[in-house]
Amino acid sequence: MRRALFPPARVTPVLVTLVLVATLLSGPLARAVQPDEMLSDPAMEARARAISKDLRCLVCQNQSIDDSDAPLARDLRLLLRERLVKGDTDAQAVAYLTDRYGDYVLLRPPVRPATYLLWFGPFVLLVGGGGILLWRGRRGSTGAEAVAPPLTAEEKAHLALLMRDEDEGKGRS
Amino acid sequence: MRRLMFLIPLVLFLGLAGWFAVRLKQIDRGDTPDHLPSVMIDKPVPAFDLPPLVEGQPGVAAKDLGPSAGESGKVRLVNFWASWCAPCRSEHPILMRLAGQGVDIRGIDYKDKAADGQAILARDGNPYAAVARDESGRTAIDFGVYGVPETYVIDRQGRIRYRQVGPITPQDLQNRILPLINELSK
User: Fold this and answer.
1) Residue A109 Cα, gap to closest chain B Cα (Å)
2) Pairing state between β B160-165 and B150-154
């Protein structure tokens, strides 16, 4: 009788699990930044990485240029590194790009009158909504919270009758 | 006051519907969410000097736009395009028509092989007063280009006055670009 070294029924779940784990692990490792783009100075490369994580890829618009494989994102990564090598501070390098592409290139929009609604809107909603809830809640508790009036003698008698019927019903079954 | 509370959802609905209607109209006119405002508007064209696409012919440089020696300057278009760019092909007949009407268009072939760019112009016609190559794409970045085609209207003083993102449609031409060229040429 031939015996398979790994019975198929066993090996399939193991394989599937391995593939899944590998897929999940490789996600964060997959980088758009290619080795040939990187700077030889690790400190400067780290600065470039940090800056480019907050810069929007204008082609894909929901990825940073650090994540994006778009050719323009690569060009911008190279440009950014070039600026840093030339001695730009982080702020100067970012300004170089906002001069050309506007605040839109920043994934973290600056706080200024045009973005007040964006930055503070949620808090206004929270405070406003909380205020309304508090106001309503307080009005409900201080106002005549309807306490049911006690039962009259007649109602008590009726209730007792109903309860007794119920008990008898159980007894019979 | 309490009696009118039931109107709140209606008012909210009308407000939202009104906003949607306004946005739909704007999107109809080409103001789509992916249409980014340019920060270069009203600024002088960035410094650049690009080599010609065809050897021996003129390239395109910042000094060609706006006033130059002995000339008061004229309104010009700068069109970023590429042979690999499909929307550029759909825009091409409109550029040919504009050139036929005497509009001065400077072309910049963006990140392209020279032979491919030359072949397309030979096949479809050349609407450009001069065509240059931007092989590295750096000049495009200086203009704020984030995709081809993009077209810039440059006034007589050499300032950027309008940016068209994506191909110029007949509507864009009629409603925006031609009126702007006429106004700036006065």
Assistant:
1) 15
2) antiparallel
